[in-house]
Design a protein that fits this description.
The protein has helices at residues 12-16, 133-145, 173-184, 190-223, 242-246, 255-293, 316-323, 330-336, 343-355, 386-412, 424-435, 477-491, and strands spanning 4-6, 35-38, 53-60, 75-79, 82-84, 88-93, 96-98, 117-124, 154-159, 163-167, 300-307, 358-364, 416-417, 437-442, 452-459, 465-467, 471-473, 501-504, 508-509, 514-524, 531-533, 536-549, 555-566, 573-583, 585-595, 600-610. It is of the alpha+beta class. Among the domains are: 4-47 and 476-610, Immunoglobulin-like (Sandwich); 55-114 and 430-473, no CATH class.
Length: 614
């Protein structure tokens, strides 16, 4: 899991303190009519029972406008290639449900019922050039001013060396505007990435020119041998003169220069590809974490990914650039560059996001007038294919940068916004799209195992265009519970249907300067499902605790399962104790409590102060 921090050195806790819906550490009064024992079995069931799969479908007419008024009969849904009946159908317009067409199964949520929607604004500063910030900031300010989305449901994060929360959910419009204003004055590290690209281009150019010069010098030396003839042979020497060996001095190098150049440049390309691939992997991991944190939120979740580009084939553009100097050796060069095709990892991200109903809109900040990365140094590589190579690099990098953006948007049901210098209009369109769609649900066929599933939606009217999540990764119980606890820990997203309360036992010394603290979890007995078990009734309860030290971001996870003996209608509280072993200091803490009988779960958060000052 990626570290998530706020912009302040104090870490996550400072920025989220006002947003956490904590349950406060307190003693809970009331008689206990139930007995609690620790269970020896594993903490989680093997699988969450999936009752319905939800698919949000955005439908546009040939002009790109929302197509409204469709009924369930206008849609066909396929699960893993097999048609499935739609059991629930709802049309949402402007963020509210409308009455479904007559005869639609399942019905809607009620006329004019508001549907929650959340927006995550994700600044990828590792790929944003500082000069590209103003249009994005301006567009976002226009987006907030339009008030199409509730400011309290907007989260602003940025990725740099780590993932930072700039504005948590629950922020006011004024607070969001202040964050955008502050970010507009900051710097992005995308400029460093561009500098690295230009350095790599120059290194390849210098290597080529050095090999050209070496080959040319060898040709001149051979040509000066007495009795040699250009293109012919020396007296008493094997046939084949110097021009046949090097391809001619005047052509800029030839086969000898290519051969040595290809061998010399391979390690450079492979190292560059690994470095770029590692950068891409960090971004995919951070995006995956954000998708995990949002798992417990209801309704539409829209992630606005703001970047100059996201490459699915790191290093391929640089290899194409080098190949431009030596077209005859391009196949050897490209095959040996060892750059990684990362499309499968991108698809893993999208399946994960889809499981949590997160839709990605990717906005490329470079716009129509982006300065070319390769153009800055084009004047320094004019010899022997430099101009051809520069063009090859620019074209290949442009395609690759867009490919990743288009992939994560298309697979999650969103769009990639390209070739735009002003983003206000597009962001307004996105806001309208996230409030106008069709929500379909169906019962999936039994698969027999937890795995990836494909979704396809077909429309009866071929002139209409549908966007929807293309598939999802089915989650087991452990993933389901963990992701929601992560949401409570990192974003302060709490939900407490079990009416859980927390308390603290006596803190004692632990090993190696740590402390032991019993965390007491109180659950009202009437909230638990007591199921018959031989001669008694038992409620099985799972508790998982995640903590993060505010000063060091050190993560700790604690699991325990319990069997609570009682009877339906029991009163009082079940007291569940789980021992935490933590270093001294403040710890952001999230607790997940699940009643396995009813599948009901609570996710609560608080801050623990352990040791001095606690």
């Amino acid at each position: 899991m990626a570290r998530v921090r706020t912009r302040r050195p104090a870490g996550l806790g400072g920025a989220l303190a006002h947003a956490l819906v904590g349950v406060g550490l307190a003693a809970v009064a009331g008689a206990q009519d139930v007995d609690t024992t620790s269970a020896a079995a594993g903490p989680f069931a093997e699988r969450v029972e999936v009752e319905l799969v939800n698919v949000d479908v955005w439908v546009a007419d040939p002009q790109g406008e929302a197509a409204t008024g469709l009924g369930v009969e206008d849609f066909e849904v396929l699960h893993d290639g097999r048609p499935v009946p739609v059991s629930h159908f709802t049309e949402v317009r402007a963020g509210k449900t409308v009455s479904p067409s007559a005869g639609a199964p399942g019905g809607g949520l009620g006329e004019s019922a508001a549907v929650p929607r959340h927006v995550v604004v994700y600044f990828d500063q590792s790929r944003l050039h500082p000069t590209h910030y103003p249009p994005l900031i301006s567009g976002l300010q226009e987006f907030l001013a339009a008030e199409d989305v509730d400011p309290a449901r907007v989260l602003i994060v940025r990725q740099d060396s780590s993932l930072f929360i700039e504005a948590p959910f629950g922020s006011s419009k004024r607070e969001l505007e202040a964050v955008l204003g502050r970010m507009a004055k900051g710097t992005a590290s995308g400029a460093e990435l561009r500098s690295e690209v230009e350095q790599a281009l120059d290194e390849i150019r210098r290597s080529w020119e050095q090999n050209q010069d070496t080959a040319a010098s060898a040709a001149v030396g051979i040509a000066s041998i007495p009795q040699s003839t250009p293109g012919g042979s020396t007296t008493g020497a094997p046939s084949g003169g110097p021009r046949a060996v090097v391809g001619g001095v005047g052509t800029g190098g030839g086969s000898d220069a290519c051969g040595s150049f290809l061998g010399q440049i391979q390690p450079v390309l492979s190292s560059w590809a690994r470095s770029r691939g590692a950068r891409a992997a960090v971004t995919l991991a951070n995006l995956s974490d954000i998708a995990s944190f949002l798992a417990g939120l209801p309704g539409v979740k829209t992630l606005l990914y703001l970047s100059d580009g996201l490459d699915t084939n790191p290093g391929a553009a640089l290899a194409s650039y080098a190949a431009g100097f030596c077209p005859s050796g391009s196949t050897q060069l490209l095959n040996g560059a060892r750059f990684e095709e990362m499309t499968p990892r991108f698809l893993d991200l999208t399946r994960h996001a889809n499981a949590n109903r997160v839709t990605v809109y990717a906005l490329q900040a470079t716009g129509l007038t982006s300065p070319s990365v390769g153009s800055a140094a084009s004047g320094r590589r004019a010899r022997g294919g430099g101009a051809r190579s520069g063009g090859s690099f620019e074209q290949s990098q442009r395609v690759n940068d867009r490919r990743g953006l288009e992939l994560i948007a298309r697979e999650t049901g969103g769009r990639a916004v390209l070739n735009q210098n002003e983003f206000g209009r597009e962001l307004g369109r996105i806001a309208r799209e996230t409030g106008t769609y069709y929500s379909l649900a169906y019962a999936p066929p039994e698969s027999g195992e937890v795995r990836e599933h494909r979704i396809e939606v077909r429309l009866q009217d071929d002139s209409l265009l549908a966007r929807y999540r293309r598939g999802y990764l089915e989650k087991d119980a452990t993933q389901w519970l963990t992701e929601r606890i992560e949401g409570a820990l990192n974003l302060g997203l709490t939900e407490n249907p079990l009416e859980v309360r927390l308390g603290a036992g006596e803190i004692g010394a632990g090993p190696e300067d740590s402390y032991r603290m019993p965390l007491l979890v109180f659950v009202p007995a009437e909230r638990l499902a007591f199921l018959p078990r031989q001669e008694s009734s038992i409620a099985e309860v799972v508790v998982r605790v995640m903590t993060r030290a505010i000063d060091s971001s050190t993560m700790s996870v604690f699991d325990k399962s319990f069997q609570v003996q009682g009877a339906p209608g029991a009163t009082g509280f079940a007291q569940l104790s789980i021992e935490l072993e933590l270093r001294g200091g403040a710890h952001v803490t999230a607790v997940g409590v699940q009643d396995t009988g009813s599948r009901e779960a609570s996710f609560v958060s608080t801050t623990l102060q352990i040791g001095p000052g606690g």
